[in-house]
Design a protein that fits this description.
Length: 82
């Protein structure tokens, strides 16, 4: 299994923090944001289920640019062997 050494950038982590504090943010945005923050300053990789969710967000037109940015960060930190 390959190890992914990528971590959430400061900018994306800040966006994730703002999303979690935003009472009008969608549930999916908050889920993505929580996962992004868990990977900040960490060697954690995106899990298979979250990778699947993030992929669906990126493929759909119904999600916001914020959700897509968070999803993109998660996909970039996924296990490359999957």
């Amino acid at each position: 299994m390959s190890i992914n050494t990528k971590a959430s950038s400061h900018e994306v982590a800040q966006l994730a923090s703002e999303t979690l504090r935003n009472p009008s943010a969608s549930a999916i945005s908050k889920t993505l944001a929580a996962s992004v923050l868990s990977q900040t300053h960490s060697a954690k990789q995106t899990g298979a289920e979250m990778e699947h969710i993030a992929g669906k967000v990126l493929q759909s037109d119904k999600y916001s640019e914020t959700s897509k940015t968070l999803a993109g960060s998660l996909v970039s930190q996924s296990n490359k062997d999957r």
